[in-house]
Amino acid sequence: MVSILIVVGVLVFAWALRTFRHPIPRKLGLVGFLVGTYLAFYFSTGSHLAGVGGVALWFLLPWVELLTRVRSIRLPREAPFDSQPPPGSARFPQLADLTDEIEELGFEHVADRGREWDGMEHFVRLFYHSDSRTEASIGFQEQEGIAWGYLSLTSRATSGTWYRTTDLPFTSTLRGARHIIARRVTDCPSFYHLNEAHEVSLSSFAIENEDLIESEEADLIEALDMEASSQIDRNIEDGILKAAENEELIRFSLRGLIYLYTRVLRDVVRLS
Fold first, then answer.
1. Would the pTM of this model clear 0.90, i.e. be above it?
2. With the C-alpha atoms ordered 210, 216, 221, 222, is the resulting torsion angle positive or negative?
């Protein structure tokens, strides 16, 4: 009876820590759940090894998804972005407000593009600021009822390097194209602050306005497709992706599944 009360007490305390907004008590709460799991298995078996095994189950859970659903995903080798109407307000209610916020800083709406494959949808609204030679974009991805939006700013240097600042909430499931230097900033309360972070990032690389190329609408759309193709090429070269049964399709390799697993663990720790 005492052992049950100890386990319940640890789990309740861990849950209480998870209610805090500060990351430190939230992370301690996560550790508390692991400790509670260890104690539950230890008290029920009398074995420390069983306790360690119980904790290990938490770390093995992502493999259920990886080996069942992700392993069966087939991606198109070429998946260009086509002209696409924006998602409705019921699906992406923040789109209108984000658009207004970006246009208030002098960015002009250029195009709405999107692509779909294997139950996944990816929408991008492109903007361009001619004076700063910087592209802004609103991204929206949806998969099996789970959706998330994000903002990005991209400046393309004459050297061929692209500098990007984004508030994408999750670590990308694929490695980015080699010519892109991306900085992820997840604590920006608005597009204005993200734009400031992008300017600071450019300054850290000693990039001036004259070092950036000017772009037209066609250039931005072409760059969107080129980036997608370059990203796929890199991940095939790195062994993250490999050809599927149909040569026009690709899928995650075993190395790719392990790579995804490390990304999932990283996001769990970071977002906890």
1. no
2. negative
